[in-house]
Amino acid sequence: MLDLTKEKIALTGGAGFLGRHILAELDSIGCRDVFVPRSKDYDLRTLRGIRRMLWDANPTVIIHAASLSGGIGMNQTRPAELFYDNIRIGTQILHEAYEAGVEKFVTIGTVCEYPVNTPTPFSEERLWDGYPESTNAPYGIAKKALLVMGQAYRAQYNFNATHLLLVNLFGPFDNFEPSSSHVIPALIRKFVEAKETGADEVTLWGSGMAGREFLYVTDAAEAIVKATQFYDGADPINVGSGEEIHIGALAMTIASMVGYRGTIKFDPSRPDGQPRRCLDVTKAEKLFNFKASTSLEVGLKRTIDWYLNERKQ
């Protein structure tokens, strides 16, 4: 076990959606020496910014949660940015962390690294069975490259780099911008606005038949901190809830929860993305004692309540 309360931790992306919850989880277990590089002070897309961060933080542990990501629409319109920004930040910071003598490096990867037709539930052994789903392949491959790099640095330099494969997250402080949001915040906003305007129907992308797994963000933060404490292996580990829901059923659930009573239609000319996503999460429970504790319904209620309160501000 790594006693994180005695470590100097750098948390990239610590001011973002996932990062702020990781920061809160670290604080809850007594970590007081946590450095969060802000983008206005440290441009982690540049070597200079990374080296300044490492000099100022002098970390023994890095949790690399900084990421450019978004939903299907963003993946279609900004694939080059999603590939380049993620790969240049990740590869440079991992290498410079090794050079600086960092003792442990945790990369937050993604379910998007899996091949398009992976049998469900996705087991870590199937990660290399094919090419990722086309709409998010640039993002997924950029993240997957960091897995390969971490394993290479472990093999040659004995660098303790680990890699976690997270499913879609949701919760308070998520991104609700229509042009870049993921499915849950996009649906919440769409149905809230449809209710307010009295819209008779709402049209959603895809067939509604795609299957997805979701993890409440505070559960994800708990998993990441536990993995940092207890897991030192080279193999990537799935982090999720292990439960799948069809997008159509998810849409009806959210509509009901926000009080929208109109018609829900789907536009099959728009992409579904990967047909199904559901992880085998047995290794996370076995290796670092993580099991999701927040149900989808409870998490949705908390997220909707947070969003509605934020809109009043």
Overview of the structural elements:
The structure is a single chain. The mean pLDDT is 96. Helix 1 crosses helix 7 (217-230), helix 4 packs parallel to helix 5 and helix 6 (183-197) crosses helix 8 (247-258). 47% of the residues are buried. It is built from 10 helices and 11 strands. It is globular, with a radius of gyration of 19 Å. It has a domain at 4-173 and 213-243 and 276-293: NAD(P)-binding Rossmann-like Domain (Rossmann fold, 3-Layer(aba) Sandwich). It has helices at 17-28, 47-57, 72-77, 79-99, 137-157, 183-197, 217-230, 247-258, 282-288, 296-312; strands at residues 9-12, 34-35, 61-64, 104-110, 161-166, 168-170, 201-205, 211-216, 237-239, 244-246, 263-267. Helix 1 (17-28) links the parallel strand 1 (9-12) and strand 2 (34-35). It is of the alpha/beta class and 313 residues long. The strands form 3 sheets. A 6-stranded parallel beta sheet has the order 2-1-3-4-5-9, with helices on both faces. It has a 3-stranded mixed beta sheet with strand order 6-8-10.
Q: How many alpha or pi helices?
A: 10
Helix content: 40-55%
The biggest sheet amounts to:
6 strands, parallel
Structural Rg = 19 Å
The tally of beta strands, per DSSP, is 11
Q: Main attributes?
A:
Rossmann fold, globular, 10 helices, 313 residues, alpha/beta, three-stranded mixed sheet, six-stranded parallel sheet
